[in-house]
Amino acid sequence: MISTHMNHAVKVLLLVEDNGADVRLMKEAFRESGIVEDISVVTDGEEAMMFLHKTGEYENAPRPHLILLDLNLPRKDGRQVLSEIKSDHDLKRIPVIILTSSQAEEDIRTTYELGANCFITKPLDFGEFTEITRLLADFRLGVVRLPEG
Fold this sequence. Notes:
The chain is of the alpha/beta class. It contains 5 helices and 5 strands. The protein has a single domain, classed as Rossmann fold (3-Layer(aba) Sandwich), CATH 3.40.50.2300.
């Protein structure tokens, strides 16, 4: 059995999600899991890139250790954000997990081709969100090895 320890917690999670109800569900599920120390939320793709590049109101933003990215975002969609992250030398090693309502094979294929680390279809209720966060924690923190920094 894989165990998740707080010393392996994700210090900063960047959640890129425009649906307020999904944000609340994910924040509560991660809070219950105890694996995330800080959750930063942005609601569109342009904000996500400003956060990651520490520009504008995000000049003091922390560097995320993990990004959960929705695909269908206003102003700049998640595919564009993912492409920019994975083509940026300073950002490309940050793991990006697509968490979206899409089940389209084209979205799955495209996001993996762009460098997504994982594609998850959003669960429908809080119990499923909690289970997804637990499984994600066990996998991301118990199995996956990432480079330092």
